[in-house]
């Protein structure tokens, strides 16, 4: 049971780590650049900051994709879920997710696309350095993952609707309320990610297709707004968990109380934890073997 809870939430924890990466190093340097009205930390810190920015962004989208696949297998293919996502396999999937994230960022150093942009006071991916590379980045790092996530969540929605309206009356299939809440939480996380990052990626795609004609017509305020909208997304996930997940709300309240009385932080620790997947949806073998 412990391993099942761990498996169900490991990618959520990984997504949280990706969100926190920008707060550890890049954001303090951005604040310094704003105060000094320019970058004063040198090229090495600029490259490190840009790398960690990319690590956070691509890590987030790849983890969101992994979460969607995990939820899809858990709800739509529950009989095979234990085999696909046992503890060993899940750790391998997690490692693969971060390896792909690092591999996706490394080409920036060869292209020279990590540069300081005075409009946003940060070292980040420069969309105009290479047309082909920018298109590749948008397609591989945004459009393809979001297409996979969209497919997974559409299949889950279809199944949820069918179960709700009892379309499959011959199947002994049930979805627990906790499963639906977990799915809805991660679905909202995905939608907000797409909304926050969509404008910046589409601007990059438009600029890369025809830089000379498109770039001069994009207002600076629109680019700045889309950029800060994108990075504001890192702050939203914790809010979403708190609003939609009762266990997260309890933990937030406990932490706030512990700030006033530190000993409470370690009281009833065994009662904490996120709302995990304690049991699989009940699926009969005939229902599983039928085509969706």
UniProtKB/TrEMBL annotation:
Annotated stretches, region: Disordered: 270-292
Superkingdom, natural source: Eukaryota
Record GO cellular component, one term: plasma membrane
Membrane topology: Multi-pass membrane protein
Residue ranges of domain G-protein coupled receptors family 1 profile in the record: 1-241
Annotated organism of origin: Athene cunicularia
Protein's UniProt name: G-protein coupled receptors family 1 profile domain-containing protein
Transmembrane parts of this sequence: 47-69, 90-111, 131-161, 182-209, 221-244
Protein family according to the UniProt entry: Belongs to the G-protein coupled receptor 1 family.
Lineage start: Eukaryota, Metazoa, Chordata, Craniata, Vertebrata
One of the GO biological process terms: negative regulation of D-glucose import
Swiss-Prot/TrEMBL keywords: Cell membrane, Disulfide bond, G-protein coupled receptor, Membrane, Receptor, Transducer, Transmembrane, Transmembrane helix
Matching PROSITE patterns: G_PROTEIN_RECEP_F1_1, G_PROTEIN_RECEP_F1_2
Cell location: Cell membrane
PANTHER family the record matches: B2 BRADYKININ RECEPTOR/ANGIOTENSIN II RECEPTOR, MELATONIN-RELATED RECEPTOR
Gene Ontology molecular function terms on file: melatonin binding; melatonin receptor activity
Keyword Transmembrane helix listed: yes
Function: High affinity receptor for melatonin. The activity of this receptor is mediated by pertussis toxin sensitive G proteins that inhibits adenylate cyclase activity.
């Amino acid at each position: 049971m412990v391993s099942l809870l761990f498996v169900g939430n490991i990618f959520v924890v990984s997504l949280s780590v990706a969100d926190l990466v920008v707060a550890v190093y890049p954001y303090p340097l951005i604040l310094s650049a704003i105060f000094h009205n320019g970058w004063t930390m040198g090229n090495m810190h600029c490259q490190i900051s840009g790398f960690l920015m990319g690590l956070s962004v691509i890590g987030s989208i790849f983890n969101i994709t992994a979460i969607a696949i995990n939820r899809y297998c858990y709800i739509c293919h529950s009989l095979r879920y234990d085999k696909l996502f046992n503890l060993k396999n899940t750790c391998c999937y997690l490692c693969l997710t971060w390896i792909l994230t690092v591999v996706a960022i490394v080409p920036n150093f060869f292209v020279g696309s990590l540069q300081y942009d005075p409009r946003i006071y940060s070292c980040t991916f420069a969309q105009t350095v290479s047309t082909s590379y920018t298109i590749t980045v948008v397609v591989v790092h945004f459009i393809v993952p979001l297409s996979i996530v969209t497919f997974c969540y559409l299949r889950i929605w279809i199944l949820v609707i069918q179960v709700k309206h009892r379309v499959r009356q011959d199947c002994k299939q049930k979805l627990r309320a906790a499963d639906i809440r977990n799915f809805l939480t991660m679905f909202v996380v995905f939608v907000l990610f797409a909304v926050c990052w969509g404008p910046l990626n589409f601007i990059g795609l438009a600029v890369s297709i025809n830089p000379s004609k498109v770039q001069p017509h994009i207002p600076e305020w629109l680019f700045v707004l889309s950029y800060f909208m994108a990075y504001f997304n890192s702050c939203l996930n914790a809010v979403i968990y708190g609003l939609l997940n009762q266990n997260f709300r309890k933990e937030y309240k406990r932490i706030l109380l512990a700030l006033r009385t530190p000993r409470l932080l370690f009281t009833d620790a065994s009662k904490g934890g996120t709302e995990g997947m304690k049991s699989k949806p009940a699926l009969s073998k005939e229902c599983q073997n039928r085509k969706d």
